[in-house]
Specification:
Layout lengths: L2 H10 L10 H7 L6 E5 L5 H8 L3 E6 L2 H12 L3 H4 L2 E5 L12 E7 L5 H13 L1 E12 L3 H4 L13 H7 L5 E12 L17 E11 L2
Parallel strand pairs: 1-2, 1-4, 2-3, 4-5
Antiparallel strand pairs: 5-7, 6-7
GO molecular function: 2-polyprenyl-6-hydroxyphenol methylase activity; 3-demethylubiquinol 3-O-methyltransferase activity
Pfam family, one: Methyltransf_25
EC number: 2.1.1.222, 2.1.1.64
């Protein structure tokens, strides 16, 4: 995992991921009572900004200074009451240092790492949860290589819901949901869709939602 490579990727285009929050983040978290949230590997901040608009006090952490700079520019255009709830931090998800009080929510969305690094990041995320807190992990599933479209083509950085549960075994978390979910991919992303005679393009994601029991 090379921060320089991600800096270059973010610098090459405007808003790599867009401004809309991830659909699974919205589906799973829209009904939660706002509190303190950590968006781990926040990128340009789309999920952090959405959470802040709902009333969460959000820390967005990423190791790309280019992505964080873009997140800060987006924050500057927000209403003050939303912008004031956002804090951007530069750091590596694999070496997370959480405050003693912990977070009510930790989001790990599309952090695609080799297994050992992924395990370190996820266990750090779990340790950062306050009692009763929610951990949401979403990413490109291993089956996306053969059953879906887009995403990384290196199987070493893909994972399954079962991998996430194994990574977090013994961490004191209760599984709320662990499943594969299919996400429509826009035709303009280079995939065939109904408009050009092809079947609807879909990506396969792994989704795991857990809660700290105590």
């Amino acid at each position: 995992m090379d921060s320089r490579a991600w800096d270059e990727r973010y610098a090459a285009s405007e808003l790599v991921w867009g401004t809309e929050p991830n659909r699974w983040v919205v589906r799973e978290l829209a009904g939660l009572t706002p509190g303190r949230a950590l968006d781990l590997a926040a990128g340009e901040g789309r999920n952090s900004i959405w959470l802040a608009a709902l009333g969460w006090e959000v820390t967005g952490l990423d190791f790309s200074t280019v992505a964080l700079g873009r997140a800060e520019r987006l924050t500057a255009s927000l209403p003050d009451e939303v912008a004031d709830r956002l804090t951007w931090r530069h750091g590596d998800a694999r070496g997370l240092e959480a405050p003693p009080e912990g977070y009510d929510l930790v989001v790990v969305a599309y952090l695609q790492l080799p297994a050992e690094d992924r395990r370190a990041a996820l266990r750090g995320a779990a340790a950062a949860l306050a009692p009763g807190g929610t951990l949401l992990v979403v990413g490109h599933d291993s089956t996306n290589l053969t059953e879906g479209v887009g995403g990384p083509q290196d199987p070493a950085v893909l994972f399954t819901p079962e991998d996430v549960l194994a990574d977090l075994a013994g961490a004191g978390l209760r599984t709320v949901r662990a499943e594969r979910v299919r996400r429509p991919v826009a035709a303009d992303a280079g995939h065939r869709g109904p408009a050009d005679g092809g079947a609807a393009a879909e990506a396969v994601d792994a989704l795991v939602r857990l809660e700290r029991t105590a």
